[in-house]
Amino acid sequence: MKNRLLKWIAGPAAAAVIVTATPASAQTTYNIASLADFTGPYADIMKDLVGARRAAIDWWNDEVGKGLGIRIGIKDYDCRYDAAQTASLWPGIKAELNPVVILGVGGPDVAALQGRLPADKVPMFMSTGSYGYVWKPDPWVFNPRPTYGHEASAFYEWFRGARGIKGPLKVAIISSEASPAYVDIAKGSEKFAKDNPDKAEIVETIYTEVQPTDLTTQVGRLIRKGVQVINIQTNTAAVVATRRALQALGKTDIPIMMSSHNGLIASGKAIGGMKDLEGDYEVYGMAVPTDQKSRAHDFQQMLVAKYKSQANWTLASIQGFNQALVALRAIEAAARKVGADKVTGEAVRNALLATPLTSEQTFGILPNLTYTNEAPFPVSGLTVNVATIKDGKYVIAGENAPVPVINKW
Amino acid sequence: MIDFLNYLINGSLVGLLYALIAMGFIVIYRASKVFNFAQGELVVFGGFIVWWMVIETGLPLVVALPLAMLLSALFGLIIERIFFSRLVGESAFAMVMVTIGLLILIRGLILVMFGPQVRPFPVIFSLKPVIIGDVLIPRSLLVGAVITVVVGLGLSWFFNNTRAGLKMTAVAEDHQVALSMGISVKRSIAFAWALGAVLSTLGAIIYLSGKSLNFLASDIGLAALPVALLAGFESIAGVLLAGLIVGAIQGLVTAYVDPVVGGAVGSVFPFVIMLVILFIRPTGMFGWRTIERV
Description:
Shape of chain A: globular
Number of domains of chain A: 2
Strand order of the largest sheet of chain B: 1-4
CATH superfamily of the largest domain in chain A: Response regulator
Strand content of chain A: 15-25%
Oligomer: heterodimer
CATH architecture of the largest domain in chain A: 3-Layer(aba) Sandwich
Order of helices and strands of chain B: HHHHEEEHHHHEHHHHH
Largest sheet of chain B: 2 strands, antiparallel
Number of strands of chain B: 4
Shape of chain B: globular
Largest sheet of chain A: 7 strands, mixed
């Protein structure tokens, strides 16, 4: 009788223990939609960018997610850097994957989804600089970097300091009207110069084709206007055409400033060697993929060694890391706030806006980030890094240069 | 004044480069009545062949460039054999649709064969400009202009004075009539595609010398369109004059209007010219006026 009573009590008790113990040990799986461009203009860098995203997620699942009871799944979608493709794929992605986060590639993804995401309650994380035309409150698309205009302006200030230039820096911008993003990039620099005439003067903004036929005439005009730096944040073709024009005119001491998507390595490959870009610069608000030892580089190497990461140490992989790490840290913060089994896209967004992200949390890939509801990027406290080609080598020229305040344009 | 001269000369030389590309349009149109939407892609394909020969295989220019021309001609022949030889006698609309498909196909082929990376195009012409007083002329454009004029006049002579050229002109008039006269329409069209592909590769060499190569280079096909339209789709010598006009206007607009309005009016202006031509004189300056008797 006693045994039967014990069994009668012990059975449900054991079951209760199992039931209560189960949620703590089981993992809740959330998905990330990884938008990619495997067949469009950025197909050549996609292996590193997507590889970095996946490696960061493998690391997070293993070293952070396990403790939280969360596992992150990821699936790639080829959006071809085409807004129409992204827009047409999105309903299917939502139905198939039910993602809590999207990782985007560039402007077309933003153009296709920024209007839908507030209703769908899914935040999208980018890896690029931001744009003036998306600088609006209540964002659902987030950039870890300020606008390209901000990054360029930070460079102007850094360059004036490095060269000891007292008056305004004479800048020329070579851009293209092929994309609204390219025009916006120029407008950002123009706004900084307009508001800070003592710091920068835009001697001319030249809008040309995306693959310029010849820029000798235009560059000759800039030289006569006393240009000190040429800003090209569009593509490598424009960098090559401008450098060739400068070489033709015998003025190789005027530096070109580039961004991450058309940086020194990419432009060096396009022109046929780094020696042609001696003394040129690239600037952006994230780590620089030189061979020099850094926390970010250590992180990448750890991922290669421990998680069999396929991502090489390139700008594309740094971009993949930056967006994946911001997204993962936001999921982490959301899980701590609402519970591991209650994470939604909206909770991730709220957590991102409420939780400052330190540079340590991104292994030095990004500076400290504090998002607000005012803009898709942190509006203050950001810094940029500057790289250059010195004696034929790709090296860091400046670190943590502060990003100046620019009014909206 | 010197600035004006610089802009005028450079613009005219760029216009002659457009004229060379436009010749590719015209040669194919004359033989097959097909407006080839994939002309820009032929330029890119030719460019990739040159890049592959010179940079990848390391062949000297004197060997690589003729070989690249030969391969381009072969590519043109393959295109004709696979697609257009089957369409003889079909409507021009059907052929034009095939060229749109060809555009997509060539892009895919380039992606598969050469990869998506931006490639450095070899320096074919010295980067040092030709300096005459205060006038500064890019050497590649100057040499390119000479080549364009020679090729243009040569092709014009060929089409108007040789038996083969006149046969091709007859084919351009009407496929059925040409066939009834014993002219091989297929052979004429095949020759036109081979020639069109070679002209595109020549254009790529002048256009891309010392620059970078990727899909964006196909935009020059579009830029050359107003030149072909201004000349009229049948006139090869006329395309030289049209190139000079479009290029000079574009150069001056880029120099004097762009800085004022803060935009690339110079890039758009040739298309304004194109629309005006289509309104006023759809056959262009030297195009054939077809009289149809019902």
